[in-house]
Amino acid sequence: MKALKFGIPLVLFVALAIFFAVGLTRDPREVPSPFIDKPAPAFKLEQLHEASRGFAPDDMKGKVWLLNVWASWCVSCRVEHPLLVQMSRDNVVPIVGLNYKDKREDGVAWLTKFGNPYALSAYDVEGRVGIDYGVYGVPETFVIDKAGVIRYKQIGPITPEALEKTILPLIRKLSA
Amino acid sequence: MIRARSIGALAVAIALAFSGPAFAQAEEVAKPDPVVESRLKALGEELRCLVCQNQTIADSSAPLAVDLRNQIRAQIAQGRSDSQIRDYMVERYGDFVLYRPPFKATTALLWVGPFALVALGVGIFLVTVRRRRAGATENREEVSAKRRDELQKLLADRGGDSA
């Protein structure tokens, strides 16, 4: 009886403590994406560097690729940028940029300054494609497989940890 | 003199009163249609702004919320229903965008949890009260029996003293 009296609150307390401890490690800003395992939404946009040329996700069919949403006004894009540059040097997969709600000249200047890891950047000045991809915090990165299906979404800057533990293994698996 | 000054102040007040809304509208629509705006407001209040997560899309001034409001306006103009517009949002941002999430396996705990906890609490309360009441009666009888013995002993002792 006495053991129960102290045991139950103790068990409840420990359970709650574990609950809260797990809760603390989670990011409430991270919204589970409804896009995982769904086909990447189609779009057709001008390219950032050459307005006369277009880009559509269908152009990448048959390849594993990354779609990285970025902007020159986005501070945390600078944090992940060296990782993208390194990835493009290592020729891991083609990286397509989605320049989101930016001025064309600002975007081009930003890439000249920090290096251009992108095979090309699509120019989404109105942010409509961003909405179709559920973008709410730039940078965001989508891993898209050979069939054009979204397999992973990184919200916020790519961290070395996310790259090593999640993105690169996934790319290897999808490319095999 | 006084009159001139007060007219000046009034002019400034009027200018200030009109500048705010005029600016906000310039950012969104030139000629707001009251019917569209009221539907937008009703819809927007049920939708979470993804950038500043404790605000609604109707309230927020974040650029994404402005874009989404314009998107909703365009869809209202296209004659889409409220539920079609909500589906459009859920397709992109998940159930999280709804302030009233639907009842399904993943949200069952969210909806049922508080009621389950209240039921558990009431259950524990009732059991405790019942147990205590039973315990109390038992104790009282025990104590009174003990006391009677003590009293008798005291009386007996006193009797011994006076004798």
Notes on the structure:
The complex is a heterodimer of chains A (176) and B (163). Chain A is an alpha/beta fold and 176 residues long. In chain A, 40% of the residues lie in helices and 18% in strands. Chain A is built from 5 helices and 7 strands; from the N terminus they run αβββαβαβαββα. Chain A has helices spanning 2-25, 75-89, 104-114, 128-132, 160-175; strands at residues 45-46, 54-55, 65-70, 95-100, 120-124, 140-144, 150-155. In chain A, the strands form 2 sheets. In chain A, strands 5-4-3-6-7 form a 5-stranded mixed sheet. In chain A, strands 1-2 form a two-stranded antiparallel ribbon. In chain A, a hairpin with a 7-residue loop joins strand 1 (45-46) and strand 2 (54-55). With 163 residues, chain B is mainly alpha-helical. Chain B has 5 helices and no strands. In chain B, helix 2 packs across helix 3. Mean pLDDT of chain B is 80; it is low at 18-26. The chains are: A alpha/beta (176), B mainly alpha (163). Chain A binds chain B through residues 28-29, 31-34, 101, 126-128, 131-134, 136-137, and chain B through 50-51, 53, 63-64, 67-68, 71, 90-94, 96.
